[in-house]
Inverse folding.
């Protein structure tokens, strides 16, 4: 029931995802059961393909996230988080209120022991069909260096598990390459990251290089600047898409014929497609006890479909277990 | 003599700029006079078109900026700044060491009375062939809210004078539109900008909108995040340019024929051309007593040509006089 176009796009996206997920995976839909069944019928899709958990309430975008999460006990979001923490589902995603989703993460799923602050991340597009990881993309601003330094380990384990990158190179977003560059936060974080033995820290990385994948696979950033990067990337995608004389829909239509003949023609298209948030589906919460993803409020069906597929990879990688293992000896830090 | 490819590209760019500047404008070249004359000869350009001031020393990129600026009294940069402050030239630009350029700005040209910290800015490309202003792009990190609030007035006057935008809309770069969003610095800056009566402050602006020109013409940002935006824009330009199947050089070649027939074909090209640093030539120092611009170290001849043309507009707008007038009643703040 979360997002501007729920439940229509959520159901449509789930139907799209059915064809893409593994046969052992199962999609559980939380929401108005009657509407869900009507919509599935409209898409000529049997309700037997899904588990449906009927809920009666909706957390609206205008609601106070923390209050609504507690008060609306039968909202799709509150019930979903309950199922997640009870082990009835393996991961939970919603395009609903980000604030309420974070309440669910922090108060129901809870941070992994030893993690000071969980973080939200995005799979960055990198030229030549690869992906990197950018974290934080907006959860913690004015983050302490100790918090940022933990992103290094969180991101490294995530990139290795979910993206399959061996010994991922971790870079600190900064405005110069040399040690000692940047603001006070970046300088202090550099010193902490440098001391971490369990990650492959490659030093500072400038924003010029994060999309080239030349220097690093994981980019550590404060939530303020990470959010600026994420939104700017989305804006560039939209502007490029609107202005390009090579219509993306036409190129995609002709892809089966043209791409084998001239793969270079599609490098450009592939990069910009990957820049579209719809190709990942949303941001990934890292550092809590179970897989959680937050979709865009304005998610399309395609975005919901990607959200489900990314979630499946996230669950199958057992990244939360690996994070718990890595942080088990970390002394919890009081904030 | 500044920049990776000096003096070759500087002279070549100056020759290119000769055809673009007004007939009352005069380009003064500072550097190795013999080399300059040789290079002008190579380009079949009479030395009479320029004033040449011979200098014998060069500030290298490895030099300590402040020490080199003082020690190398006969470097093109030190002599250039001396000419500027003596009124022998009206503006000074170089692709040399940014650090040394800032020493010249702060110690020779000096900040305008009342301006806490001068700032470096860039002319942002905005869809449909317009320009906006982004400041700071990397000079002052961890800037105090009082410093950022002054960028509002500095940027507003600059945009009105140099870009010809009437009553420019000033936005504060933030990660949410509503008042109260962002980090501590952004929140405090918002409160100060809101109180300024002499600017048209339109509130927070997210990075999604800075290139659309939808909400504002002037974007105020801390130097850290502004630098991240600038470098990311340059990276996007390079990636797009490298991957696009519509070769930019070919489109530019065919422009005289194709653009009148199909202007839409060029919207895309025009936007990305404007995203290229070569189209502006460098960053503009705002808040010092005379026009100063800093080119990229790796400047091409085209970039130097743009640098000279942007400088000409800067000088003709008499923006420094207007800034002095606007700040004359501001009580100097001790940092």
């Amino acid at each position: 029931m979360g997002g501007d176009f729920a439940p229509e796009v959520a159901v449509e996206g789930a139907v799209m995802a059915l064809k893409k997920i593994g046969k052992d995976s199962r999609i559980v839909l939380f929401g108005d059961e009657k509407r869900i069944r009507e919509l599935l019928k409209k898409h000529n899709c049997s309700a037997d393909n899904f588990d449906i958990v009927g809920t009666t309430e909706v957390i609206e975008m205008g609601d106070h996230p923390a209050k609504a999460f507690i008060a609306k006990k039968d909202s799709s979001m509150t019930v979903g988080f309950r199922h997640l923490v009870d082990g009835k589902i393996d991961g939970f995603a919603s395009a609903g209120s980000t604030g309420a989703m974070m309440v669910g993460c922090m108060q129901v799923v809870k941070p992994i022991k030893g993690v000071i602050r969980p973080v939200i991340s995005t799979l960055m597009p990198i030229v030549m069909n690869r992906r990197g990881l950018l974290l934080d993309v907006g959860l913690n601003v004015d983050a302490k260096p100790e918090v940022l330094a933990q992103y290094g380990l969180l991101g490294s384990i995530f990139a290795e598990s979910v993206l399959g990158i061996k010994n991922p190179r971790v870079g600190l977003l900064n405005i110069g390459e040399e040690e000692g560059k940047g603001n006070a936060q970046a300088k202090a974080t550099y010193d902490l990251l440098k001391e971490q033995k369990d990650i492959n820290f490659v030093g500072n990385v400038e924003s010029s290089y994060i999309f080239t994948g030349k220097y690093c696979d994981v980019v550590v950033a404060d939530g303020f600047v990470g959010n600026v990067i994420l939104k700017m990337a989305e804006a560039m995608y939209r502007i490029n898409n609107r202005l390009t004389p090579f219509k993306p829909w036409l190129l995609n239509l002709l892809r089966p014929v043209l791409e084998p003949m001239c793969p270079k023609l599609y490098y450009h298209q592939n990069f910009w497609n990957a820049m579209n948030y719809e190709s990942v589906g949303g941001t990934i919460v890292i550092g809590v006890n179970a897989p959680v993803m937050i979709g865009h409020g304005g998610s399309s069906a395609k975005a919901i479909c990607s959200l489900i597929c990314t979630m499946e990879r996230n669950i199958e990688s057992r990244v939360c277990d690996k994070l718990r293992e890595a942080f088990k000896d970390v002394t919890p830090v009081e904030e």
